[in-house]
């Protein structure tokens, strides 16, 4: 297990449609373990494989007080409604914006044992994270949902943190 560098805006891998995982094997399990370590180290809620430089359809989501959700080859099969949410991204450090996301999201994929799973979420952080992370494996960033980059807001740093990199 290791903390991997997080790719940032400008890195080509973030704009590519990630490749399907043909089989869940030891290399995928190692990737997921590294992604979990990396996400926790960066205090994130979710992470997609392209964010650690790997163009594979693998995402993880860690909702506080819940187990980490791992989805291999996920896709959104149903969405409905709209809501405005505040969103940031580890690959676009130092910024946030208000974006429109679906109110209700159903996604399917496979878990680390290769079993098919279906996840339903409504009006919560999980619904938002499912869309955000699945966007990543499709080469889409949250900033693509903005009408203008002028909508981006800089994250405020505490005075003692000025000059430090934001996660």
Order of helices and strands: HEEEEEEEHE
Query: What percent of the residues sit in helical stretches (DSSP H or I)?
Result: 10-25%
Poorly predicted runs: 157-167
Q: Please tell me the overall pLDDT.
A: 91
Protein model, in words:
- With 167 residues, this protein is an alpha+beta fold.
- The protein has a single domain, classed as Peptide Deformylase, CATH 3.90.45.
- It has two helices and eight strands; from the N terminus they run αβββββββαβ.
- The strands form two sheets. Strands 1-2-3-6-7 form a five-stranded antiparallel beta sheet, with helices on both faces.
- 31% of the residues are buried.
- The C terminus is likely disordered.
Topology at a glance:
Layout: H1 26-41, E1 46-48, E2 58-61, E3 69-80, E4 83-88, E5 95-101, E6 104-110, E7 116-122, H2 125-137, E8 153-154
Antiparallel strand pairs: 1-2, 2-3, 3-6, 4-5, 5-8, 6-7
Give me a quick take on this structure.
The protein has helices at 26-41, 125-137; strands spanning 46-48, 58-61, 69-80, 83-88, 95-101, 104-110, 116-122, 153-154. The protein has 167 residues and is an alpha+beta fold.
Which key features would you list for this structure?
globular, alpha+beta, 5-stranded antiparallel sheet, Peptide Deformylase, 167 residues
């Amino acid at each position: 297990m290791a903390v991997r560098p997080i790719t940032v805006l400008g890195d080509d891998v973030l704009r590519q449609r990630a490749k399907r995982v043909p089989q869940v094997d030891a290399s995928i399990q190692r990737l997921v373990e590294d992604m979990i370590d990396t996400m926790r180290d960066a205090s994130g809620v979710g992470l997609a494989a392209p964010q650690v430089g790997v163009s594979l359809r693998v995402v993880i989501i860690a909702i506080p007080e819940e187990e980490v959700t791992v989805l291999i080859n996920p896709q959104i099969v149903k969405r409905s409604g709209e809501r405005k949410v505040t969103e940031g991204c580890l690959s676009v450090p130092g910024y946030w914006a208000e974006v429109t996301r679906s109110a209700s999201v159903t996604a399917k994929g496979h878990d680390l044992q290769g079993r098919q799973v279906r996840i339903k979420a409504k009006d919560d952080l999980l619904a938002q994270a499912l869309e955000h992370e699945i966007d990543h494996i499709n080469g889409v960033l949250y900033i693509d949902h903005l009408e203008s980059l002028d909508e981006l807001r800089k994250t405020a740093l505490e005075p003692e943190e000025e000059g430090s990199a934001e996660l």
